[in-house]
Amino acid sequence: MGEIHRWYTGDIGSCIKVDNKGNLYVSGTYSNTVDFDPGPGIQNLIGNGVNLFVLKLDTAGNYIWAKSMGGSNIEENWGLAVDSNKNVYTTGQFQGLVDFDPGMNIYNLISNGGKDIYISKLDSMGQFQWAHSFGDNFTDRGSAVSIDGSNNVLLTGSFAGTVDFDPGPGVFNLTASSSDIFILKLDANGNLLWVKDSGK
Fold first, then answer.
1. Where are the domains positioned within the chain?
2. Which sequence ranges form a coiled-coil region, renumbered to this chain (predicted)?
């Protein structure tokens, strides 16, 4: 499994993963209207600003599904992971209000003034499971996500200021003097297991 890093022209495929059956998953950002079916079919998604996408293809590169998440600002995708049950996780940064449910329902997250970290989970059919955000009024970013053998979620990136890394009702604040590294572990349901930081 590997990643393709982003380039800065047009629509961007930033990450690619392969599941245990050989299906391909691509994540990134797009704007306006994009046909995500690489074959003769048409599967358009319509962006509002610069939005996030996740695309699933079979082992031959045929379209299975594509999902869009976003708001009216610019979202960025930096990390993608797939667990043993083919659930799909993405991370990056966003600003303003973003609907992370790609279906008919709405699940809005709102940043705390600057760019915030997000982590999102979709199931094997691209249906929304959960999403969390973390941030202060500075620039924070989720850079990479990985899944361990128990399907726990490991997330790393950078943060500044004081950030509550507990997505639940509890509070677990870490404070960075400038921009520090964080390493966050969540269970498969998105609950905090632990978080650590490293920096000057």
1. 12-198
2. none
Beta partners for residue 18, in sequence order = 24
pTM for this predicted structure: 0.92
* Full DSSP string of 57-112: E-TTS-EEEEEEEB-SSB-EEEEEEE-TT--EEEEEEE-SEEE---SSS--EEE-S
Q: What is the pLDDT of residues 1-44, one digit of tens each?
A: 333 333 334 689 999 999 999 999 999 999 989 999 999 999 99
Print burial letters for 81-114: b (CB count within 10 Å at least 16), e (below 16): bbbeebbbbbbbbbbbebbbbbeeeebebebbee
pLDDT over 90 (residue 73): no
Amino acid, res. 33: T
Show Cβ contacts of residue 94 under 8 Å, excluding neighbours closer than 6 positions: 71, 73, 75, 76, 109, 111, 115, 116, 118, 133
List all residues 6 or more positions away from 59 whose beta carbon is below 8 Å from its beta carbon. 21, 22, 23, 24
CA 142, CA 62: separation in Å to the nearest integer?
Answer: 30
Contact assessment for residue 17 and residue 25, using Cβ atoms and an 8 Å cutoff: yes
Task: Find the helix or strand (DSSP H, E) in which 51 lies.
Answer: strand 44-57
| Partners of 68 in beta bridges | 53
End-to-end CA distance of the chain: 32
